[in-house]
């Protein structure tokens, strides 16, 4: 494909599109407004903790085909690790009960027949909730599809909140159903938990940048596109800090920024564009410990534990860091950071202590709290209707991002899939 490919945004959607198009025969430039690529899936050195941390936690599954294809293209497929079985340890802070969801590897869910492998207290009839979610219509919410019982309370509700980053009362059942069809419905082999062995940047960003450098692509960080120029049904220019870049007739532009930025940049050239406009936050808090905790049993094999009945949702063990994720965190927006951190540390001790060789300190260790106030679009039926496709009303302009119409919630899998979709649409000879 001749011409110059301009990719605006260096998050995973933009990097995915760039990897897909690098080496297609023309120039390729990625414009990233921030100092580093990666967006919500990157690592950085935290001076307060004195170590490198991820800006958020992302639990991937072996079913994430777009993720593993992307990692394979950049030579990083072996940088994800995880248990050799589809196991998910949990603790309920209400009664302090503990269990490990241990899925069957094949399609037949034998795990449901074993009280030691399924959610404690659940009734087999509750699995109808899964069918209802997978068959849900576009206007249904998760809460409308869940049957009462322990399967919902101890698995499906926490799973829904973390997958959608939206509460069950408003979250889209159809989106959650899509996740279930691509994971649990395919059997345990599709549900092996995976996460970076070192960090998000080391898996998803640095190998991609190295690959793009080998392919002679240009990545410009600290380069904010402040405006889009269009005429005669196509983009003709990009406004950059050092002047305007001309977009020639054979060039294409892929807009891989956040939904609010895309709406702002494209307001003058695509006045009819609709994008999600309601958002949910995520809170991640990282505790650094000395000495590093030594997890045992299921926690030692999985390196994470799900938490039910508290503020905390997932606790990840990353060497000397205990990292906690709280999804759909708009509900905690008014909570003081120190007070919230103290509550979470108390929950971490209750959740993790029984599975460690040595107990955690009573006093809270050094920590870093990261509040991403617009982490994802709110995955509601109303917001789902606002997600645009990759193609736009301009001949050479395409959209990418986890907020576009991927059929999935705002996830790494969705972001990478959106980049591939935009790149393939741009390569399509009938696009004009």
TrEMBL record:
Residue ranges of domain Amine oxidase in the record: 12-425
One Pfam family from the record: Amino_oxidase
InterPro entries, sorted: Amino_oxidase, FAD/NAD-bd_sf, SQase_HpnE, Zeta_carotene_desat/Oxidored
MF (Gene Ontology): oxidoreductase activity
PANTHER family: BLR3003 PROTEIN, PROTOPORPHYRINOGEN OXIDASE
Full protein name: NAD(P)-binding protein
Organism: Gluconacetobacter aggeris
Organism ancestry: Bacteria, Pseudomonadati, Pseudomonadota, Alphaproteobacteria, Acetobacterales
